[in-house]
Automatic annotation (TrEMBL):
Belongs to the class IV-like SAM-binding methyltransferase superfamily. RNA methyltransferase TrmH family. SUPFAM superfamilies: alpha/beta knot (SSF75217), L30e-like (SSF55315). One of its GO terms (biological process) is methylation. The keyword Methyltransferase applies. InterPro entries: Alpha/beta_knot_MTases (IPR029028), MRM3-like_sub_bind (IPR053888), Ribosomal_eL30-like_sf (IPR029064), rRNA_Methyltransferase (IPR051259), SpoU_MeTrfase (IPR001537), SpoU_subst-bd (IPR013123), tRNA_m1G_MTases_N (IPR029026). The keyword Methyltransferase applies. This is RNA methyltransferase. GO terms for molecular function: RNA binding; RNA methyltransferase activity.
Length: 274
């Protein structure tokens, strides 16, 4: 596959890729780093904009990843590298011997919503209000894709979408699910102007139980920050406040668990109404 092999961490390409381990480097380059055979395979098979791949030529990759690499575009720069070099580009304790560079999603939120609203009358979106935990965000994106969510809006002030922990936790969903980082109150206002409804997850007493809510039509569900919940600004834009009953002593549910329950309840009711 590769005609060159990098053995020094001082190599210019390796130094450039190391910058992608930090948020600033990702923002300046418009690209992010993924690692592991499964994620690389998912990226290639989903049509993500992979630009560079480094792999350990002395290590056996799984069959699915090898198959994905055999069908790779000639535009992708594939380079063999030593185990020591790949360790410099890994954030995990047990590097899997392959990393890749992927360009960030370049879709425009307003253009995307216009196209989606023209194509579909029944929509389900997730709005995430300053979510801080990378594991939570990755799990939510993985669950959202599984539940058929059309897209996700990540509020500014949230954990970086392209943080390595987030990307790994998505298990490939990040390559297929449209996700936009926006000012959430502005995005919510635009959504409502286009006829969409906003349902905010909250523990307030004036909210309705999530299983008694109408999820038909164009609906966006808002999940709040792990510590303070949904912001007052988003609450004021809500068409309805919903809660998930808690029967034990816990004060609240984990954000990823709450998101999962809500999107699957919405999906169940949407499917039942068709």
């Amino acid at each position: 596959m590769a005609h060159e092999r990098i053995t020094s961490a001082q190599n210019p390409l390796v130094k450039r890729l190391q910058l992608l381990l930090e948020r600033k480097g990702r923002e300046e380059s418009g690209s992010y780093l993924i690692e592991g055979a499964h994620l690389v395979e998912e990226a290639l098979n989903s049509g993500a904009a992979v630009t560079t791949i480094l792999y350990d030529s002395e290590r056996e990759l799984n069959a699915a990843c090898r198959q994905a690499l055999t069908n790779i575009s000639p535009d992708v720069h594939v380079v063999a590298a030593s185990e020591a070099v790949l360790a410099k580009l890994s954030e995990t304790k047990s590097p899997q011997g392959i990393v890749a560079v992927v360009k960030k999603n370049q879709q425009n939120w307003e253009e995307w919503t216009e196209q989606l609203l023209q194509a579909k009358r029944d929509l389900l979106l997730l709005f995430l209000d300053e979510l801080q935990d990378p594991g939570n965000l990755g799990t939510i994106l993985r669950t959202a894709e599984a539940a058929g969510v059309d897209g996700v809006v990540l509020g500014r002030g949230s954990v970086d979408l392209y943080n390595g922990k987030v990307v790994r936790a998505t298990m490939g969903a990040i390559f297929r699910l449209p996700v936009f980082t926006q000012d959430l109150t502005v995005a919510a206002d635009q959504w409502r102007q286009k006829g969409g409804r906003m349902l905010c997850s909250t523990l307030r007493e004036d909210s309705r139980s999530y299983d008694s809510v109408d999820y038909s039509g164009k609906v966006a569900i808002v999940i709040g920050n792990e510590g303070r919940g949904v912001s007052d600004e988003m609450i004021t834009q809500a068409d309805e406040l919903v809660h998930i009953p808690i029967y034990g002593q816990a004060e609240s549910l984990n954000a990823a668990v709450a998101a999962g329950l809500l999107v699957y309840e919405a999906r169940r009711k949407k499917d039942r109404s068709h």
